[in-house]
Structures are given as C-alpha cells and as structure tokens.
Design brief:
Blueprint: E1 22-23, E2 30-36, E3 41-47, E4 52-55, E5 66-68, E6 73-79, E7 85-91, E8 94-99, E9 108-114, E10 119-126, E11 129-136, E12 142-147, E13 152-156, E14 163-166, E15 175-178, E16 184-188, E17 195-200, E18 223-229, E19 232-239, E20 243-252, E21 256-260, E22 268-275, E23 278-285, E24 290-294, E25 300-306, E26 312-318, E27 321-327, E28 345-352, E29 359-366, E30 373-379, H1 393-400, E31 404-409, H2 418-421, H3 430-445, E32 449-459, H4 461-472, E33 479-483, H5 489-494, H6 498-508, H7 516-522, E34 535-540, H8 548-560, E35 566-570, H9 579-596
Helix pairs in contact: 3-4
Length: 613
C-alpha cells in the first residue's frame, strides 16, 4: 500500500499554498518540499516508498526555498526576516546542516542551478546588483558574474559549461549566456520582442536535424526560450552556433511558461498557459512538432512539473478548494489534502466594456443573503499578475461575513494577452483605477453592491491602487485597507533594489530625476490629503519591495492633511512565511472593514482551519 502523503502548507486558514515537491535525481521516491510546521513554512523530506517524513528546518520565521542535488543533499535558503541570507545543506536522511558554499556573499536569493556531477551555480542579489558564483557543495565558490543590472540566474547546462542569466524581459540583455570563466557567449535582446529563458534541456539532445524548422541538433546544449511576437507568446530554442529559433506551431495568445521533461535524450516539454483567470496544460513534442492538451480539472494550476516517468505533478485549486498537489497518475504527493471550504458564496464572471476591451471580474456573493450587499473590491498585486479561479482566504472570510467580493483583472494584468498587459493609456495607476471604477459602476447597476457601502482592499501593488483610488476618487469609496503598499513612488525608488528600480524606470519611462512629473502623477502621496473615508495601512519594517521609508513619507502627508487613519506595523519583509502574521492581517482587516461600511456585519474571528470533507 502506498503511504499517505504528509500534511501540506494549507492548514492555517488557507494562508499557505503548497509548492510542488522537488524529486531526487537518483530516486523519484525521495522528495523535499515546503510544508506547514505549526503555522510556518518549513522544509520537509519525504520518502514515498517507506512513508518516512522528516522536518529538516525549524526556524522562528519559516523557510521557503529548497532543492535536492545528485548526492541527495538537501539545499535550503537560510534567510533573515528581511529576506537576506545564504544557502545551507544537509543530508536527506538527517544530520547537521552547514553552509553550502564558502565565498558567496549574503543577499537575496536570485537563482540556484544544480548540474550533473555536483557542479552548482548560485545567484545572489544585493543592493549593489547581481552576483553569480560557481563551485561544488561544501567548497568555495568562484565569482562568474557581477553586475549592477537587474537579473536572475536561470539555469546551468547539464555539463556545467554554460549559464543562462535572465534580465528584464524587455531589456537589451533579456538573456545572457556565459561560460564559467565569465565569458559572454551570446545575448538575447528583448527590446523589440520581450524574451525570457526557461531552462536547459536535461541532457544534450541527440537525433538528426529535420529538413525544416528549428529542431534539436546532435550533442548540442539546448535552451528553452519564450518570446513575445505579434501579440502571441512563441516557444523557441537556442543552441550555441545556431542561435534562437522559434517554433511556429507552438504559440499562445496569453502568458505561457514551459519546462523540459527530465530524462536522457528527451525532447518533450510541458507548457502551462494562464488564460482569462484559469489554466491549461499542454505537452509539446519537439521532434514530431505536436502540441497535445493535458486534461486537468477546471480552475487554476499554480505550478506544474513533468516527471521522468511521463507523469505530471501540479498544484490545482479553484474558488472553493484549497490548493493541493496532484498528479495525473493519481500517485500521492505531499500536499494532496482533502481540505474543502464550506460553500459561503455564489460565483460568477462579469465582463465590463472598456476602451481597450472588456474588463474581467470574478464576483462572489454571499449565499442566503439578499442583494444588494456591502461590496469589497479585492485588488490583486503585480501589476504583472492576475486574479484567478482559485481559493483565496480573504475572499472566503469576506463572503462568509456577508460581503460581496469583486476581483478585477484590470489593464496591466497578465492572462489576457500582451496588448492588455501593456495597456496604460490613462497613465500608470490611473488606468487601473479607471477599470476599478468601471467595475464598481456595473456591480452597483446590477444590484450586486449598494451605494454607500463600497470598500477597497489590496496588497502590494493592489495596496498601491487602493491608496491611489481613495485619493483620486474619494467620493466612490467608503473604506480602504492597503497592505504593504507602494505609497510614495519617488521615496520608494530611492530606497529600492536595483531590480525594482529597473522595473520602475521601464514603467515610468525614466528615473524620478528624468521624469519627475510621471512619478508625481502616479504617486498616492500626491492625493493622500483628499481621502475622506476610513483607511487602514499595514506596513512591514523589513520590506525591501515597498520599503518603510516611503510608507513614512505617505503617513506624513496623511497627518499634515488631517486624514484619519489607522496603522499596523509588522516586523517582517514583504513576503512573510509566518502564518500568524498573515492571520493577524486578515483579522485586523475584517474588523476594520466591518466598522467602515454602513450596515455591514462586524465579522467574527475566522476559524483557523477550513472544514474537512
């Protein structure tokens, strides 16, 4: 009998989602994964054949990143509360942990690649930029690359002879190929067509070169690449001496990513497409030039990974099922739980006409309560992200408390094609606020929400849009909650990382010194004094993405304008791994929203666990 899988990271009111287990290259029954350890993310090892599970890490604020190498040594990233740290390793079966590689500076993780034979490449990001180091576990790393440019280590070729480093997809150095001595072999530009690398084939690919179209070349290292062209996303391959060639039979109208199937001589690829808030899987056979759909349940696939035996492992969810790890074959995986939420709400899709096409909104309304309802627009972050047909603990908490919830995939969201993602015709932030306003109007016209009882709630970029909307259209919103928001664009730029500065420079068309009016026009602090409704700001002291200095600058404007507000500080980074912090934010937000909306119920404390069926 196959042992039951261990618990996964979805136990604390749905705060965590599971991540796919990483399988040992030597033994597919041995896996490491991020799981739930009494409300924290920690790293576990699981031997599926014996059913033995072991918790590897036990850190006060949790651990998220892990890997396993050819020798079955487990790698995990030992970070502080601000997200900075270094890699450590220990044996799959136990024993002490130790630094993975000497000579690598502490910093934020920026990629880890493990090649056959024990060669390792580590990417580390610091305030000075990106550095990449190569070596062996337990040895001393050699510096391969140091750059002030934004970037991430994508992969290391199986023979250890070539590295792929990803820059911003729109940049002149979207993909850089270099040798272990630091010599640049090739650079793929994304200035005309956005380009990004997806990883090297697991082994040099054999087989004859077909008579037409790109195909594997005997014995060549092959890199999988995605390129945006003519409104579509095209899969392609790059090989030394041959360059980049796109596969005309393998393109998609919305964002798609891909992974090689493992195993020697493989030419199969698994693709995952995000389309209109839901997901689809495909396999592509590069030899036969065949694209085949993979049957999966309707909903969202948050991650997918092919297995050497042809199976597919994936994280699946929909609005009422917490994310869980599944396999097409039905073989148990860590995270294959049966948790299911009570049915609090009725779901529907709403499409609202707009200048660049219809705006898609996921609407959830309370069951057994008459409309119109008090309404919350729950605003997603990003902006290069989107709301999905997926379980969201905040949606469940709000709907269970009597609110209607609208999740708007405004312009700039992914999942609707390149044109939608790049549509900023009304300016940064203001374009997205205009879509929130349009969705609000239709929700009220349809009788779903009611005038005088409409709130906003968002995290990160969603928090930014919450603040901007409350300042630019104060007459429309009756309450707002902004969690770890971008609040003052200029101050955020001054205290941000090189990677985020590069994103801002591309988004605004320059730095604050070069285009000060663009930053001022988009900044919530420019409009903060106009806010007239209750506002809760949740901020993190160690936040590198939305730094505390820019929160303080925004709060100074609120105080100077006499704007009433509440403030909640967290002693964490932007992405905390402690479930207690997440739950505290949900509870504080629910209470605040309940006080701010007329006739809305003040919610009870949420249950720490969903119902099990």
């Amino acid at each position: 009998m196959t042992p039951a899988p261990p618990k996964a990271a979805t136990r604390i009111y749905g705060v965590y989602r599971p991540v796919l287990p990483v399988t040992s290259p030597r033994n597919p029954d041995r896996m490491v994964y991020t799981g739930d350890a009494d409300g924290r993310c920690e790293i576990f090892a699981w031997d599926r054949s014996s059913g033995v599970e072991r918790q590897l890490t036990d850190r006060p604020h949790g651990t998220l990143l892990c890997a396993v190498d050819d020798d079955e040594a487990v790698w995990w990233f030992d970070e502080d509360r601000g997200g900075s740290g270094g890699w450590r390793t220990q044996d799959f079966h136990g024993g002490p942990d130790r630094p993975a590689m000497a000579g690598v500076p502490y910093g934020w993780p920026a990629g880890l690649a493990l090649a056959a034979g024990g060669t390792v490449a580590v990417g580390i990001r610091s305030p000075e930029g990106l550095s990449v180091h190569m070596g062996r576990r337990g040895g001393t790393g050699t510096s391969v690359l140091r750059t002030t440019d934004s970037g991430t280590l994508c992969d290391l070729a199986p023979d250890g002879g070539l590295l792929a480093v990803s820059g911003p997809a729109h940049s002149a150095r979207a993909v850089t190929l270099l040798t272990p001595d630091g010599t640049t072999v090739a650079v793929l530009s994304g200035t005309r067509e956005r380009t990004w690398a997806l990883g090297f084939a697991p082994t040099p690919l054999p087989g004859p070169t077909p008579s037409s179209g790109p195909a594997p070349t005997p014995g060549r290292t092959l890199l999988l690449v995605m390129r945006e062209r003519a409104g579509r996303y095209h899969l392609g391959t790059w090989a030394p001496g041959r360059g980049l060639e796109l596969l005309p039979w393998c393109s998609f109208d919305t964002e798609t990513t891909a992974r090689w199937y493992p195993g020697p001589g493989g030419t199969r690829v698994l693709l995952r497409q995000d389309r209109h808030g839901r997901s689809r899987l495909f396999t592509a056979d590069l030899d036969r030039r065949e694209l085949t759909p993979v049957p999966t349940p309707e909903g969202s696939i948050l991650d997918a990974s092919p297995a050497a035996d042809g199976d597919v492992h994936f994280i699946w969810t929909d609005a009422v099922n917490v994310p869980r790890a599944l396999s097409l074959s039905g073989v148990p995986l860590p995270g294959q739980s049966q948790w299911r939420l009570p049915r609090f709400g009725h779901r529907q899709d709403l499409w609202t006409p707009g200048p660049d096409g219809p705006v898609h909104t996921f609407v959830t309304t309370p069951v057994g309560r008459p409309a119109p309802h008090p309404l919350i627009l729950l605003v997603h972050g990003g902006p290069a992200d989107h709301d999905r047909d997926a379980y969201d603990p905040m949606v469940q908490a709000l709907v269970g408390s009597g609110y209607a919830v609208a999740r708007v995939n405004y312009r700039g969201s992914t999942g609707y094609g390149p044109r939608w993602r790049s549509a900023y015709s009304e300016g940064v932030g203001h374009t997205q606020v205009a879509d929130l306003v349009r969705a609000r109007a239709e929700l009220l016209d349809r009788g779903i929400g009611r005038e005088g009882a409409v709130g906003l709630c968002g995290t990160s970029w969603g928090g930014y849009l919450t603040l901007l909307a409350m300042g630019t259209r104060p007459d429309l919103w009756n309450v707002g909650v902004a969690v770890k928001p971008l609040a003052d664009c200029v101050t955020a730029f001054r205290h941000s990382t090189p990677a985020l500065q590069a994103l801002d420079t591309a988004l605004f068309g320059g730095t604050p010194d070069e285009v000060p009016d663009a930053y001022a026009h988009a900044s919530p602090s420019s409009y903060a004094a106009a806010i007239r409704s209750p506002l809760l700001v949740v901020a993190a002291r160690r936040d590198a993405k939305c730094p505390p200095e820019q929160i303080e600058a925004y709060l100074a404007v609120l105080r100077a304008g006499g704007v009433a507000h509440e403030l909640m500080w967290l002693d964490s980074g932007h992405d905390g791994y402690d479930g207690a912090d997440h739950l505290a934010v949900i509870q504080r937000s629910l209470k605040f929203l309940g006080r701010g909306l007329p006739s809305a119920p003040v919610p009870a404390e949420p249950s720490p666990h969903p119902e099990r069926r």
